[in-house]
C-alpha cells in the first residue's frame, strides 16, 4: 500500500528512566490504537539530554529499554523507532547516541548510531560538546516496511544534506530524525532544515522531539513535525507532551518527482554525492 499513518510521540522526559519507559510505551499503544503503522519516539526518550547524563543512563542494546520497545512493537504490530539517544548505548567501553528500530514481530531491524556529534559554540547562547562522552557511529541506517524504505538520522545529522541525499539514492521515501533542538537553534533552523531536506530529495521528512521542560538543564524546542516532498508542513506539535499524526501518501512522492524531475537532471559530469560505505 502507498498510504499509511505515521505518529510522532512528543514525550515529556523526566530523570526517572522507568517512568519514561512506561509512559512512552503507553503513548505508543495509544498511537497504534489510532491506526499508526510507523511510530517514532523522540531523541533521548529514556534519559535527560546532557553529556553528564549519558554515562549514567547508558545501557546495552539489546537491553532493558529495547526489550520493552520490542515487546510493545510486537503487541501493537507496528514499526517502532526508539529514537535518538533513544538510548545512550554502551558497547566495548564506548558510548553512542543510538536509535533502535523494531518491526511488527518485535525483531530489531536496524540500530542507528548518530553520525554527526553535536559540538557547537554560539557565544552567549549555547555551548555543547557531545564528543566529550559520545563516539560517532559509522554506518547508514535504513529499514524496509510494506509502504516504503525509511532512512534514519538523529538530531544534528539533519544538518548534513549529504546523508539525506545518500538515503534518497538508496530509495528511501521517508526520513525520520528523532531530535532535540534547543531554544537557540530551534526557532532558527528546526523547520527550515526539515523542509530543505524534504524539497532537495523529494521525500517525506519527520522529526520527533521531546516535549519542552523549562526546568531542564537542556531545554528542548519541541515542535515535532512532518513535512511532505513539496516542503509543506503537514503536522506540527506545540511544546507540550502530545502525539502528532500524519497520513502519508507515497503517491505524492511519485507525482512530485514527475512534475519536477531533478533526479534525472543532475549533472553527474560536474558533481556527485557518493557513499563511501555500503
What does this structure look like?
By secondary structure, the chain is an alpha/beta fold. The protein has a single domain (3-264), classed as Carbon-nitrogen hydrolase (Nitrilase/N-carbamoyl-D-aminoacid amidohydrolase), CATH 3.60.110.10. It is 26% helix and 30% strand. It is built from seven helices and 14 strands. The strands form three sheets. It has a six-stranded mixed beta sheet. It has a six-stranded mixed beta sheet with strand order 8-9-10-11-12-13, with helices on one face. α1 (17-33) packs parallel to α3 (64-76). The model has no long low-confidence stretch (mean pLDDT 94). One of its GO terms (biological process) is oxaloacetate metabolic process. Its EC number is 3.5.1.3. It comes from Myotis lucifugus (Little brown bat). It catalyses: 2-oxoglutaramate + H2O = 2-oxoglutarate + NH4(+); 2-oxosuccinamate + H2O = oxaloacetate + NH4(+). InterPro entries: C-N_Hydrolase (IPR003010), C-N_Hydrolase_sf (IPR036526), Nit1/2_C-N_Hydrolase (IPR045254).
